[in-house]
C-alpha cells in the first residue's frame, strides 16, 4: 500500500531496520599503505597546478588591463584617489568569482541615484547569490564594467596599495557588484 501523504517528520528511527555498511578490517589494512602515497602524490601535483593557475590568472588580468587601456578606459591611481576624496563619481568593486579576480572601477556617474534596481554596497561574498541584487549586478555590468558596452574606467591597484584603497572605497560613494567570469571576459 502506498502512502497517501508525506510525513513532516519521519517516523522514529529503529536501529533494527537499518543495515550497517562497515568496511572489513582486513580490507582497510590492505588499502591503507596505498592511501598515504596517493595523498602525497596528489599534494605534490596540486602545488604546481595552483602556481600555474595563478600565473594564468595574472596574465589574463594583465591582458584585460591592456585592452581597457587601449580602449581609453583606465584611470590612474592618483586621479582615482583624488576623485574619491573630492566626492565625485562612484567607485565600483567587482568580483568575478569567490577566488577572484577583484577589480576596481570608477565612473563619473552617481550610480546609486541612476540605478533602476536596489543597489548593493557591502561585502561581496555576502551579496553573491542574493536574488534581489541580480538585476543590479546585470545592469551594472552592461552599463559600467562590461569591456564592450561599459563606460566605467578600470583602476589598476598595486597589491601594496590594496588595503589603503579598500579603506578609501568604504568611505566614499561606492557600489559592489558580482559578475560571472564568462561575462567579464567577453
Task: Give a structural overview.
A hairpin with a 6-residue loop joins strand 2 (90-95) and strand 3. The chain folds into 2 domains: 22-70; 72-184, no CATH class. The chain has a 5-stranded mixed β-sheet with strand order 1-4-3-2-5. The longest helix is centred in the first third of the chain and has 46 residues, at 25-70. The protein is built from 7 helices and 5 strands, in the order αβαββαααβαβα. It has 186 residues and is of the alpha/beta class. The mean pLDDT is 81. The radius of gyration is 25 Å and the shape is elongated.
List keywords for this structure.
single chain; 186 residues; alpha/beta; 2 domains; 5-stranded mixed β-sheet; elongated
Structure at a glance:
The chain has helices spanning 25-70, 77-86, 111-114, 124-127, 134-145, 162-170, 181-184; strands at residues 74-75, 90-95, 102-107, 153-155, 174-178. The N and C termini lie far apart (57 Å).
Total E-strand runs = 5
Number of domains: 2
Computed structural class: alpha/beta
* Portion of residues within helices: 40-55%
Strand order within the widest beta sheet: 1-4-3-2-5
The rounded Rg comes to 25 Å
Residue stretches low in confidence (pLDDT < 50, at least 5 long) are none
Shape summary: elongated
- Straight-line N-to-C gap: 57 Å
The total count of helices amounts to: 7
Strand content: 5-15%
What sequence of helices (H) and strands (E) makes up the elements? Answer: HEHEEHHHEHEH
How would you characterize the largest beta sheet?
5 strands, mixed
Arithmetic mean of pLDDT: 81
